[in-house]
User: Fold this.
Amino acid sequence: MRKLYSLLKYTLLILWGLTTLFPIYWVMINSFKPTSEILLNPLSFPTSFHIENYLQLSNYGNINFLKGFKNSTIISFSTTLLVLFLGSLASYAIARLNFKRANLINSFLVGAQLVPAFSIVIPALIVFKTVRLSGSYLSLILLQTACFLPFSILTITSFMKSIPIELEEAAYIDGASVLQTFLKIILPTSIPALVTAGIFVFLWSYNDLFMSLILLPLREKQPICVLLSLVSSAYGTNYGAMMAALFVTIIPVVVIYTFLQEYIVRGLMSGAGIR
Assistant:
């Protein structure tokens, strides 16, 4: 009975994994086909690798994918670093410093995740225009930081609460200050939670089409997700080029999930108190 249960469990997991991987495989094989071959048989392996689809993307009009990757890298990495910096400080204060309003702040953070992003874009545009940040990388980085910070604080706080207080007490006895304890004990111990929060923030920022499209109207500053939507419109029925653009865009996401999935699971499970 136990062997049958294990067989059924792994069969379902394999089928679930195939349903996740198949769309990526389908996009990849069709990115090397001309449109006529895609329309003839979209599920077949390409008879010959049609790399012209990728060459079209690098030379099409004013759509520069390399520039888009550079913009996405600047925005996503800056947002991630800023969120982790502010989130780790706030999480340590909530988890370790006993003050009366800690539970109230925690409730506000939970409620902040229920606020839709589109409801704060117009006020943010007015503020950024007033302080002359409109259309800059910094405007999008600050808005994304405000949107993603509550999740990161809650995730990191949950993990920090599971760290034994005896580690900090031993450090205080040895003469360490609060800052030294935070930098040398709490942060290194909280790496799984920091990596987990950082991965989610980076991917959310990388895939954020709505705020990027509104806050960055200039083509030379737009990230890859915005350029992908423009390519889809520009190429029309050129499905080969559209598939190539889509595959190039999802490569960083697939790589991150492939090599860092262990940190995601460890961070979430440790924050939930699971060992």
